[in-house]
């Protein structure tokens, strides 16, 4: 959170994401407080990038990038599998 990805980095993550793009968005209390609709982000990389560029706290963490591929590191076992 100290150095959140900028829009270009978010685009790189989205373009290489192995997971569904909507999974990058945290659907937590802040998401609900903003009255956002989860359906707006399903298969919608542009909407996900726009939202996360504006609201960095909604980025699901951790995100692991290796080359041109990226995953959401939950559960943590996925990280080890992805990096090996």
Question: What report would you give on this structure?
Answer:
By secondary structure, this protein is of the alpha+beta class. It has one domain. The protein contains four helices and two strands, in the order αααββα. Strand 1 and strand 2 form a beta hairpin. Helix 1 packs antiparallel against helix 3.
List key phrases describing it.
84 residues, alpha+beta, 10% strand, globular
Helices, strands, pairings?
Layout: H1 7-16, H2 29-33, H3 45-54, E1 63-66, E2 69-72, H4 77-83
Antiparallel strand pairs: 1-2
Helix pairs in contact: 1-3
Percent range for β-strand residues:
5-15%
Main sheet: which strands, in order across? 1-2
Backbone CA Rg: 12 Å
Distance between the termini: 26 Å
Q: What form results from the Cα inertia axes? A: globular
Number of helices: 4
Largest sheet: 2 strands, antiparallel
**Helical percent range?**
25-40%
Number of strands: 2
Q: What is the averaged pLDDT score?
A: 95
Low-confidence stretches: none
Q: What is the string of helix and strand elements? A: HHHEEH
Strand-pairing-aware structural class: alpha+beta
The total tally of domains equals 1
Briefly summarize what is shown:
The chain is of the alpha+beta class and 84 residues long. The protein contains 4 helices and 2 strands.
């Amino acid at each position: 959170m100290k150095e959140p990805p900028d829009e270009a980095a978010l685009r790189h993550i989205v373009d290489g994401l192995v997971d569904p793009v909507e999974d990058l968005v945290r659907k937590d209390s802040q998401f609900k407080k903003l009255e956002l609709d989860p359906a707006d982000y399903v298969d919608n990389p542009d909407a996900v990038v726009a939202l996360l560029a504006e609201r960095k706290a909604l980025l699901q963490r951790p995100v692991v990038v290796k080359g041109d591929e990226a995953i959401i590191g939950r559960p943590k076992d996925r990280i080890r599998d992805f990096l090996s």
